Amino acid sequence: MNKFSFLAILFFTGLLANAQEKEWTLQECVNRALENNISIKQSQLDLEVADIERLDALGNFIPSVNASASNSWNTGLTTNVTTGVLQTQTTRNFSAGVTAGLTLFDGLRNFKQLQRARISRLAAEYSLEQMENDITLFVVDSYLQVLFNKQNLEVLRSQNLVTQEQMERTQELVDAGSLPEGDLLEIMASNADERQRIIIAKNNVKISLINLAQILLIKDYDSFDIVERDYDILGAEVLENSVSSIIEKAKAERTEIKIAETNMELAEMDVEMARAAYLPSLGAFFNYNTRESGAGRIIGFETDPDEPTRQIGVVENTNEIVVTPNTVSTLGNPLPFFEQLQRNDGVSYGVQLNIPIFNGWATRNQVKRSEINVQRAEYQLEQAALDLEADVYQAYVDAEGAYEAYEAAIVAANAQELAYEYANQRFEVGLTNAFDFSQAKVRYENAQREVLRAKFDYIFNIKVIELYFGMPVTELKF
């Protein structure tokens, strides 16, 4: 292997390793979920179905055209479809036709159906947008959970390093007789407990990464990872708006209300379509048909040699028998296929009026059912507005509470850090025992963990408020 080949292998190996070790940012995770999430794909299919329904509605305005053809064999006493003669025979008959129909008036049902299809597509768009918002929050929550677990693991590791250093120094002091052996045992027990918590924290990181990968439809769990960086608190200015203004903005922008409104419009349109069945309907039709037969055709007539005459009556006064020449038809070969089709074709056309008179109250009952659905949709719209108002209030209170908890956690962490440093100084000079020192250290670790939890909780609640305030998913601040 030459030098160039060796360097090329190293280069491409490095590229492959970098590709496999891609670390995902929060925005990349959100974008991938919006592109690949199964629930979003299902909502996109609903949008495609709505487009098909719209084409169905448009199709009602154009004529329907249908063609038919049949070829049959008949044996026995049958009528020759070409000659009209009843005879015992085996014949082959062919027929074909084309029929076109057009609805001229159907109580405006076609127009209502087209309007309904347009509203239905709008509802599908709102449902897709709602699904995108839900998936975005789900991804953000899962991502922040991974980030919290990772940073919590780093806190535990850094604190364990301090414990190990303290354990080595305590060992030296115990060997020198400056500290009792019980202090060393206490620190060793703290170290074992911290190692156990580190293992649990590692497992939490792995599990949360797998959960996030599953949301993103990424199956390579081993190499999947996220960017480890400290996310700033962005978008907090949305909390400067009053909760009432956020509620009004949410009612105007949120898809929950729009979906309920379009559902009510669909229900109202169903009522109008049901009432259209009370009105007459008018349609036009046109038909072209032709036929062909394999039976022989009549080419002439001749006197029957077996019975030259046949009786047709009797003179009333003389009882004289009246006869007439008895002739039989002479059959020849059938005409060519296409010539028969040309000779035997015909057309029919006209209009058809249907006037509904009585159908067992079916139309009336359908109208009543549709009107009940309108009332149900009105209640659902009212309930959606109440639910949205409650959700916004809850999200606003949660965001304010998360902010206060975050500030309190910072103050507590600073205080616990000073307490830990003081306990460490006292332990080093022998003014406190290892148990008190370990308790101060545990309290400091818990305070650091609480700061992380409160921070990510606050970030998540801000994203919720931003969505309620009508901010598009693509414009969320991370």
UniProtKB/TrEMBL annotation:
<feature type="coiled-coil region">
    <location>
        <begin position="250"/>
        <end position="277"/>
    </location>
</feature>
<dbReference type="Pfam" id="PF02321">
    <property type="entry name" value="OEP"/>
</dbReference>
<keyword id="KW-0998">Cell outer membrane</keyword>
<comment type="similarity">
    <text>Belongs to the outer membrane factor (OMF) (TC 1.B.17) family.</text>
</comment>
<dbReference type="InterPro" id="IPR051906">
    <property type="entry name" value="TolC-like"/>
</dbReference>
<keyword id="KW-0732">Signal</keyword>
<keyword id="KW-0175">Coiled coil</keyword>
<keyword id="KW-0813">Transport</keyword>
<dbReference type="InterPro" id="IPR003423">
    <property type="entry name" value="OMP_efflux"/>
</dbReference>
<keyword id="KW-0472">Membrane</keyword>
<keyword id="KW-0812">Transmembrane</keyword>
<protein>
    <submittedName>
        <fullName>TolC family protein</fullName>
    </submittedName>
</protein>
<feature type="signal peptide">
    <location>
        <begin position="1"/>
        <end position="19"/>
    </location>
</feature>
<keyword id="KW-1134">Transmembrane beta strand</keyword>
